[in-house]
């Protein structure tokens, strides 16, 4: 178990914010997680549990203790019509997707190249191109911080919805996730009707993709739209796509006939936040050292030397402009601490 004081978090946040924490703890097993929670005192508050830091914006030095999982390993169990993959919470999520596809465990292809770790996938309910982590999560194993006891949560207990779970609300900073089990299929059923997947496949003259071909295509699409955080600091999609009711949707269609949308339920619609940000003229623009990516307006970037407060100022300015023009409040997907 790692236990380091005055620890730099620069390599633990993809925005590239140079900040530190009072104490950094890292566990590599269930036993280490149980020992770790017994060592915590009031001096460790406030606690922040992180994954790869790909969905994190630090406003400055963190005044408390940061905890990270280094639990690794993938175990496979055949079940009816598929497989259960039990993965350590510190595994890189895309490595799990790559492993699954290469071994014929299907379903998560559309989640390819989403940054972050396995534990965070269960907290954030990560998603892309018509798929979400909740579609595959079978069970979550964790250690309760208050008691040190091992607990298990079924998918249904987590109250998953769009980019939401109980781990972001009632259970926030209350559990150290040690493993996540995903249920995958032994039959490949491609999901192609979201975004420009079919267009990209057609360009490659692929009509019926294999799982490997679909994964490579998703990766290419993401790489074309999203900057490499090693080159330009970012946390991927900064804002959640807002969901509006039918009345608001009809109003928007009257004002903006070209507005893209995705029907969520019979009476609700998802509006792409990136499109609205682009309509407000922010795509490719900057506010000091913080900016909006020139290929995807949903992505805020550190253009070099930006502080967390610089990114937050840009966030608030964009929120104001979108609400003023469209009457819609857009909220960050990123965890701001």
Automatic annotation (TrEMBL):
Catalytic activity: UDP-N-acetyl-alpha-D-muramate + NADP(+) = UDP-N-acetyl-3-O-(1-carboxyvinyl)-alpha-D-glucosamine + NADPH + H(+)
InterPro entries recorded: FAD-bd_PCMH (IPR016166), FAD-bd_PCMH-like_sf (IPR036318), FAD-bd_PCMH_sub1 (IPR016167), FAD-bd_PCMH_sub2 (IPR016169), MurB (IPR003170), MurB_C (IPR011601), MurB_C_sf (IPR036635), Oxid_FAD_bind_N (IPR006094)
GO terms classed as biological process: cell division; cell wall organization; peptidoglycan biosynthetic process; regulation of cell shape
Coiled-coil parts of chain: none
EC numbers on record: 1.3.1.98
All copies of domain FAD-binding PCMH-type, residue ranges: 17-187
Extent of the signal sequence: none
Cofactors named for this entry: FAD
Pathway participation: Cell wall biogenesis; peptidoglycan biosynthesis
Residues spanning the membrane: none
Principal subcellular localisation of the protein: cytoplasm
GO cellular component: cytosol
Cell location: Cytoplasm
Active site: 163, 237, 333
Keywords: Cell cycle, Cell division, Cell shape, Cell wall biogenesis/degradation, Cytoplasm, FAD, Flavoprotein, NADP, Oxidoreductase, Peptidoglycan synthesis
Key word Ribosomal protein present: no
One MF term in the entry's GO annotations: UDP-N-acetylmuramate dehydrogenase activity
Family: Belongs to the MurB family.
Protein role: Cell wall formation.
Entry protein name: UDP-N-acetylenolpyruvoylglucosamine reductase
Lineage: Bacteria, Pseudomonadati, Bacteroidota, Bacteroidia, Bacteroidales
């Amino acid at each position: 178990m790692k236990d380091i004081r005055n620890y730099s978090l620069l390599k633990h946040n993809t925005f590239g914010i140079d900040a530190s924490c009072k104490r950094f703890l890292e566990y590599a097993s269930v036993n280490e997680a149980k020992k770790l929670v017994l060592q915590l005192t009031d001096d460790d508050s406030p606690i922040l549990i992180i994954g790869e830091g790909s969905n994190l914006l630090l406003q400055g030095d963190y005044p408390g203790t940061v905890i990270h999982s280094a639990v690794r390993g993938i175990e496979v169990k055949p079940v009816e019509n598929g497989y259960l993959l039990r993965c350590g919470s510190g595994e890189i999520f895309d490595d799990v997707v790559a492993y699954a596809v290469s071994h014929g465990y299907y379903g998560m292809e559309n989640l390819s190249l989403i940054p972050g770790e396995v534990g965070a996938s269960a907290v954030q309910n990560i998603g892309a191109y018509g798929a979400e982590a909740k579609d595959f999560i079978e069970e979550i194993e964790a250690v309760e911080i208050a008691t040190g006891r091992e607990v298990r949560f079924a998918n249904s207990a987590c109250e998953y919805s769009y980019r939401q779970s109980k781990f972001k609300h009632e259970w926030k900073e209350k559990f150290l996730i040690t493993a996540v089990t995903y249920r995958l299929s032994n039959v490949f059923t491609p999901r192609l009707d979201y975004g420009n997947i079919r267009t990209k496949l057609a360009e490659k003259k692929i009509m019926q993709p294999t799982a490997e071909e679909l994964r490579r295509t998703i990766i290419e699409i993401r790489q074309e739209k999203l900057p490499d955080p090693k080159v330009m600091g970012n946390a991927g999609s900064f804002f959640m796509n807002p969901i509006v009711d039918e009345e608001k949707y009809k109003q928007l269609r009257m004002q903006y006939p070209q507005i893209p949308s995705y029907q969520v339920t019979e009476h609700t619609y998802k509006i792409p936040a990136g499109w609205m940000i682009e309509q407000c003229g922010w795509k490719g623009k900057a506010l000091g050292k913080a900016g909006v990516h020139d290929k995807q307006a949903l992505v805020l970037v550190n253009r070099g030397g930006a502080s967390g407060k610089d990114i937050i100022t840009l966030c608030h300015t964009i929120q104001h402009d979108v609400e003023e023009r469209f009457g819609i409040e857009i909220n960050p997907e990123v965890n701001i601490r």
